[in-house]
């Protein structure tokens, strides 16, 4: 299949590459997985690809093809919790989130939410997510079955939370670990699916449970680890009481072997220099969730310090703490946060950087560089068809744009789900 359209992708150093008249060629590999065969300017590539036997050209004038978005941290069971008002993280968990998540013991209920969630991801141009399930093992079966049916790349995990959690969501220390092992064997590496060992956060797991999670993380090095860290000051005080021997919040996880490549911690707002060095040295990634941090007034991710330390990070919605499934809303909030935190130093994240953080950069942080998040040769062919003229104002602004930065910025500042005309997932069939 050959697409002719404007084309956005990223160079290895993260800078955006743009062809106003581009060509994207995709073809199945030996396993039937659609992959990018070539991407670049129509002028340069058309002689090579047009006219190949079986090649069909889909011409999309006025549209923009771009990599599918990667959401590094989301909770599918919180789809219906978006917009629940609360006085910060801990009251929000207690009054809305835990009671709602208790409903996921019912597989049929979980299936219904999983289907809606995946439709909503795709409608917003998100082709891969690293998602929390709930503490109920069937909630993982629900989301991964639904993703498998669509041929999507998706990573999920059963939540481990054996203390400080109400009846209905609290699991048993040993059983939670046994269920995790069973689910890893059932799902990890099946089709495009992956498993993440998912302790909710340090306050809701006993030391025994975190120790067991760390043992599983060592036993299965290519399985992901997924949790929350250093989001909210009340939460951090609580962690200090519960784990007085740890140097910091992240050090609790480190002490149990839970910081390594393919470990992802949501938020990472209130870090010090030693925490940032630890992230870098262990190859651990941060998932930045600015709409959630604004909604729950948790704080601002420190981009300047993160870049100085050199650890990997990417963008995430954190629905239902987050306010939107739309990557455009997340990028917009990330821009505002970047401006806000260091207004004296005037940090202005470039639109290409923001877009990279939600595509190729997020893929890299997940250890999936060259697999998803980009449209370079060999990548799995997950992409979106963007209509830059989807609203009257966007039509004007994108028409007037005099540079790639202006074009991308118009979409980041004004965009939402209406920009996504179509989401194409690389089905392995
Ligand atoms: N910390 C522990 N659980 C959660 C959750 O569900 N959402 C957010 N934002 N933070 C958490
Ligand atoms: Fe979260």
UniProtKB/TrEMBL annotation:
Cofactor(s) this protein cannot do without: Zn(2+)
TM ranges: none
Biochemical pathway: Purine metabolism; guanine degradation; xanthine from guanine: step 1/1
A family per Pfam: Amidohydro_1
Enzyme class: hydrolase
One GO MF term attached to the UniProt entry: zinc ion binding
InterPro entries (alphabetical): Amidohydro-rel, Guanine_deaminase, Metal-dep_hydrolase_composite, Metal_Hydrolase, Metallo-dep_hydrolases
Entry's cofactor comment: Binds 1 zinc ion per subunit.
Start and end residues of each Amidohydrolase-related domain: 65-409
CC per GO annotation: cytosol
Superkingdom: Bacteria
One of the GO biological process terms: guanine catabolic process
UniProt xrefs under PANTHER family: GUANINE DEAMINASE (PTHR11271:SF6)
Protein family: Belongs to the metallo-dependent hydrolases superfamily. ATZ/TRZ family.
Protein name: Guanine deaminase
Organism: Comamonas aquatica DA1877
